[in-house]
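Q: Give me a protein?
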Amino acid sequence: MTWRIRGKKMLEKIRSEILSKREPSKPCIAICASTGCASLGSLELVERLKEELEKKGLTDKVDLKLTGCMGFCELGPRLTIYPEEIPYFKVKPEDAEDIVSQTIIKGQIIERLLYVDPSTGERIRRLEDIPFYRYQYRLLLENNAKIDPKNIEDYIALGGYQALAKALFEMKPEEIVDEIKRSGLRGRGGGGFPTGIKWETTRKAPGEPKYVLVNCDEGDPGAFMDRALMEGNPHLILEGLIIGAYAIGASQGYIYVREEYPLAVKNITLAIQQAQEHGLLGEDIMGSGFSFHVKVHRGAGAFVSGESTALMSAIEGRVGEPRLKYIHTAVKGLWDKPSCLNNVETWANVPYIILRGADWFRSIGTPNSPGTKIFSLVGKVKNTGLVEVPMGITLRDIIFKIGGGIRGGKKFKAVQTGGPSGGFIPEQYLDTPVDFDSLTKLGSMMGSGGMIVMDEDTCIVDVTRYYVDFLFQESCGKCVPCREGLKQARKILNHICEGKGTMEDLETLQDLSELLRNASLCALGTTAANPIMTSIEYFRNEYEAHILEKRCPAKVCKALVAYYISPEKCQACGICLRNCPVQAISGEKDIVHVINQDRCIRCGVCFEVCPFNAVEKYSPATPPPAKYGVKVVRRKKEK
């Protein structure tokens, strides 16, 4: 369809024409083609489905739609068959024949592809009955399963760009800013700063041109919220950006996407082209007289470039380093001009607020943190994937209702929110509501939405070391507190994990944390104190075990763990012997194997490969019984 929209009525007319050409009863197979599911084979599944449809002569009678992330990523590849809305999980290319012949042609449900409730064994037919989805409020993610991100007509058919039309033809820029302020929307990128106030500051700031920017540089380990939105529904972000540009008075926008997100870059670039072709972007948008242009800037892979001033420096063609904020970027940002930067999720909320109103938005969440928040729920939890919940839901509900609890019947130890700069939250605070202020009080933060669950087998000291090392590697090194503070913190944590630490080291870590928090140039350094401070405050006993007892309670730290073979469990199969990289294991057929502790490098390979769980961990400070080092002849089984 070739068209160029001029005015609100024409948009509605185009939407009606799109819907009139679609048959609601026509079968549609919507397959997640996001980065996650694609890595699990969803694209191969698509090709097999195309072949099966062609064989059956159904190519023109069944729609095959490649969509964005549907959540529940560990059960991918995922697909949904409409109009019945049948959800299938862990679908393999070889399932294509049955899907076409049984579900599409005969209308039969393939039981083996349905979700199985692990607690009851029941196969669940309806998506809303699956606990992972039942307790969510999928405002921003809902349409990911219904939209082909490469097709603008799908977005318009679901009401896309109606908010833009309302903003351009029914509201003044000041009214839009006021609506965003009244909604209470706070930045979803980590800081939680009121979005409306930031918009107003940029609008009133002297200087032309003004800029609006999208931050899609999430670099937190395990986080992929912005990527999922950008890949699955790029027009939603673009619409929010255009509305913001009109409200602020900006004529140029930039979408900063990290280099590791090629599919997100591809989809948003295509969305920009489509919006320009149809009069929704560029000169004289929708015939309103407002003109706005957008460019995509690919990041260079630096974690610190997610910081506002570093991001703007990168767009300017310089090294992505933070700079002093004597004046906020809202007043002097990109090329020293007023610049408004929000992350992907923040911009995605804007069309909903403009279309449905600030009061509606405030009805979701809490008074100080309205709306929903997307988290990437990962770690030692049964159900992992993207989770969208109303602000105010408790950590316990997210982890145990949506996440299904801890894997393998293990005990919960901690949850870290806010990525590598977030804090560790112990069990006694699981009933804390998830909002900006409550998490900050615990020493953690909302961050961009990373949520990593840890069980009893996690060593908090070791994880703290990992995050400090990550932040040290990602620090730009421009300011001394961050550069040297993280370097020294990493050194101390390494010593503690090696059993060489002292109690004075804990005081030094706390002093370094205060230095980082109070003197660092940007948020990478100031928030780097969170994992250190919360780990010492809530898990001091683990530090003391490492320091005073030379013991790692979780049996993770290599220098504080030894491996022994249990004579009762060993089957003398030789698997550990063959896999040991330093030939530290001796044994023969029908003779229990033994580890030479003087030669063992404690790599843990034997522990990982033993199929009988005969290799056990011990603290060198408390060695196992002497018999674990003695060769035992195993009786041959009687025939």
Summary: Residues 562 and 618 are 5 Å apart (CA to CA). DSSP finds 25 helices and 19 strands in the chain. Confidence is low (pLDDT under 50) at residues 635-639.
